[in-house]
Amino acid sequence: MTNRQSNCAEVSLKEQPVTRTGGKYLCGLLRCSLAGCDRVATGDLATRLEVSRASVTEMVEKFGAEGLVDHERYKGAALTDDGETLARHLQWRRCVTERFFEGELDVTLDAETAYRIGFELPEAGTDRLASIVDHPCGRLCQATSVSDCPRLTISSS
């Protein structure tokens, strides 16, 4: 794992080569990494994300070319430092969104909806929600294992 404090103020989705769907793959790899997996087989990630193996392979190769994922055929995929930072930022955005809806609006969002809203919100909007709910993490998820945060699920199921 990287030093998560390093670039937290500089993380921005505007400057990242990731779509909302692609970000879910990075978050899935982060969760697997926090569960103790050094490398994740594309088939295992496909099962966890409920997508095809071909889809995972394509996305992992794309992120490999962008320096976000290190993938070795037959050994699996792992986040690079940049990939982990981006995944932690995406996870933080989702968590902020969930906490805001639960704490301020008394509405429980499923993981998919919270992720989608968190991804689409402008940076300033997410930062404002984080200040309203007094979110403990500074723009990056600070979990060091899956037991640190119940919000580290990958999907709603």
Descriptive overview:
With 157 residues, this protein is mostly helical. The protein is built from six helices and two strands; from the N terminus they run H-H-H-E-E-H-H-H. It has helices at residues 20-34, 42-49, 53-65, 81-105, 111-120, 123-132, and strands at residues 69-72, 76-79. A two-stranded antiparallel ribbon has the order 1-2. Helix 1 (20-34) crosses helix 4 (81-105), helix 4 crosses helix 5 (111-120) and helix 4 packs across helix 6. The radius of gyration is 15 Å and the shape is globular.
Q: How many beta-strand elements?
A: 2
> Which sequence of strands runs across the widest sheet?
1-2
Structural class: mainly alpha
Radius of gyration: 15 Å
pLDDT averaged residue by residue: 85
List keywords for this structure.
157 residues; mainly alpha; two-stranded antiparallel ribbon; disordered N terminus
Question: What is the strand and helix layout of this fold?
Answer:
Elements: H1 20-34, H2 42-49, H3 53-65, E1 69-72, E2 76-79, H4 81-105, H5 111-120, H6 123-132
Antiparallel strand pairs: 1-2
